[in-house]
Amino acid sequence: MTTKNTAPEAEQKATPRSPQPVGPSAAAADTPLQTVTLSHHLRIGGKDYAPGDKARVTADYARRLRAQGYVART
After folding, report:
1. CB within 8 Å of 43: residues ≥ 6 apart
2. Half-sphere exposure of residue 45, counting CA atoms within 13 Å on the CB side?
């Protein structure tokens, strides 16, 4: 016998405490995260980011993006 869940879908989804990190090594929970502002169009994890968009990435990936010129200077 199965029971039908009558709770609204919005209540079933867990709300994240912070934005989901993107990019390589994003799944590692013990790595520090940084928010970067992108200076060029970039596709990360299947999502397109326009110049000026912010992305939450690991510190290592942020360093690599800065070295390649994809992060805006602040």
Report:
1. 49
2. 12
pLDDT at 67: 93
pLDDT in tens, 21-34: 787 765 666 778 89
For the chain, the domains span 19-67
pTM to 2 decimal places: 0.64
Distance CA 59, CA 56 (A): 9
Strand partners, 39: none
The DSSP line for 17-42 is SSPPP-STTTT-TTS-EEEEEBSS-E
Q: 59: helix, coil or strand?
A: helix
